[in-house]
Design a protein that fits this description.
Elements: E1 10-14, H1 19-30, E2 34-39, H2 42-54, E3 58-63, H3 69-82, E4 88-91, H4 105-124, H5 127-130, E5 138-142, H6 155-175, E6 181-187, H7 208-218, H8 227-238, E7 249-252
Parallel strand pairs: 1-2, 1-4, 2-3, 4-5, 5-6, 6-7
């Protein structure tokens, strides 16, 4: 952690109320950013914002349905009115989608909307605000190791996350003249309440029986990541320490894609 690294900067975390998003919100807040914690669960967002405030940081909780373009516009309008600029945008919202290839049209559309439409509009609609950041704007998105290695469990998830790795390369070129850097991370297994959904179980379910076998077989470092480890990578990418890093895809996976 680098205290004061984001002092005077404004950050928005889309999906910042729980799991990795909450850890990222807290990390950016602890390093001085005014963080807009935007989440579909307003009480979660409020809880994270209060944590940041309780540690002496600055945060604003905001209800947001991240697939609704009008709500994204409203968020950015609020940030413009309050600050006139956005320095850091991180998009965390995503769902695993249905497993296998027997996918209903409604499930297909929901997965596409959450995993592709939302990050596309969240990032493009923020461009005007990020252009005002004196060439210090940063966009980070969250894909998955499923974007980089084959997985038989959810082809539609691999499809949507793989799309983000191509998207950031194009967006990075678009943003480069204005100093807006765009990068995507690819986490593997992360120890959050949502991890069981990737094994076909309900959020928060006990998956020790599945996790231990999967981890020993697929993760060279022998454990799932902690959300704070993901937050550390995002904080680096959003900071001046990564001022020459753009258009990259960074696995944060304990070595999964190295095998």
């Amino acid at each position: 952690m680098t205290p004061g690294r984001f002092e005077g900067r404004v950050a928005a975390v889309i999906g910042g109320g729980s799991g990795m998003g909450a850890a990222i919100s807290r990390r950016l807040g602890s390093e001085g950013a005014h963080v807009y914690v935007a989440d579909l669960n307003e009480s979660f967002a409020t809880g994270v914002a209060e944590e940041i405030g309780g540690e002496g940081g600055k945060a604003t909780a905001r209800f947001l349905d991240a697939v609704q373009i009008s709500e994204l516009k409203d968020l950015y309008d609020e940030i413009e009115a309050e600050h006139g600029v956005l320095h850091v945008l991180h998009h965390q919202v995503g769902i695993p989608g249905p497993g296998g290839i027997d996918v209903s049209e409604s499930d297909w559309q929901e997965t596409i909307d959450v995993n592709m439409k939302s990050p596309f509009y969240a990032s493009t609609l923020a461009f005007d605000l990020l252009k005002r950041a004196n060439k210090k704007g940063s966009i980070t998105l969250t894909a998955s190791t499923s974007a980089l290695v084959g997985s038989p469990f959810s082809p539609i998830y691999s499809l949507t996350k793989g799309a983000l790795t191509a998207y950031v390369r194009s967006l990075a070129l678009l943003g480069a003249p204005d100093g807006i850097r765009v990068n995507v991370i690819c986490p593997g297994s992360v120890d959050t309440p949502m991890l069981p959904t990737f094994f076909g179980r309900e959020p928060g379910a006990d998956i020790e029986d599945l996790k231990s076998g999967f981890i020993s077989e697929f993760i060279p470092l022998g454990r799932a990541a902690q959300p704070e480890e993901i937050a550390g990578v995002i904080a680096f990418l959003a900071s001046d320490d990564a001022s020459f890093v753009t258009g990259t895809t960074i696995p944060v996976d304990g070595g999964i894609v190295a095998k």
